[in-house]
Amino acid sequence: MWERVAHWLDRIVPVAEEYQIQVACHPQNPTIGDATYRGVARILGDARGFERLMAIRDSAYHGINFCVGTFSESLRQPANEIHDVIRYFGTRGKIFNLHLRNIKGGFGDFVEVFPDDGDVDMLQVLRTLREVGYGYMVMPDHVPTISDDEPTQVGFAYTYGYLRALLQTLEAEPEAGAGAPSGHDAEDRPPEHHR
Fold first, then answer.
1. Interhelix angle for 2-19 vs 47-56, to 10°?
2. Beta carbons within 10 angstroms of residue 142's beta carbon
3. What is the residue range of 147's domain?
4. Is 181 within the bounds of a domain?
5. Would you place residue 188 in the very low, low, confident or very high pLDDT band (cuts 50, 70, 90)?
6. Cα separation of 71 and 52, whole Å?
7. Less Cβ around it within 10 Å: N or C end of the chain?
């Protein structure tokens, strides 16, 4: 499988560089690590897979659509470990896009929830992203629905309102010392998923 990925990257990254277009890969969802699912290798289901993906063809135009929810699904303690994953890829300039989605639980046992209702502190995630210099879009991924005539639209409206409040809170804070405590140095490898 990795040979196929390398073949594709060898063709697409030079074009992205020529036209100065950032290409970003979203992790496989739901994450099951590097295991197979119905006979298909799931090589991009955790931070280790993305570490390898980024190493195949290093480029300022090759990065990640960083989904907080999906990366959290691959961690045993996402509330703590997600910051190390953000720091690992963020300090390398590899986060091009951000899906702010939350979960309750962790690897192998989780449920998707609204961003204010999960185990991961989304304000702390935004602080960590600010710490590593992230300067692109923040958006929801998919969201739970709320009972209404338009359940999906109501769910997205709620989520966008919450995201806007988070960004306003972040804008009002001083930057110094705002990041979450780290259990790993950014030079370490990203946390690996747990089976």
1. 60
2. 15
3. 2-172
4. no
5. low
6. 15
7. C
| Crossing angle between the packed helical segments 122-131 and 78-90, to the nearest 10 degrees | 20
- Which residue has 């020529």 as its token pair? 18
Name the nearest CA neighbour of 84 among 169, 167, 179, 170: 179
Q: What is the DSSP string of 54-109?
A: HHHT--TTEEEEEEHHHHHHT-SSHHHHHHHHHHHHHTTT-EEEEE--EEEEETTE
Domains identified in the chain, total number: 1
pLDDT bin (cut points 50, 70, 90) of residue 43 is confident
Q: CA–CA separation, 58 vs 17, rounded Å?
A: 11
How far apart are the C-alpha atoms of 115 and 122, rounded to whole Å?
7
Check which CATH number belongs to the domain holding 131 and give it: 3.20.20.150
Q: Which pLDDT does position 1 carry in this prediction?
A: 83
| Residue 183, domain member (yes or no) | no
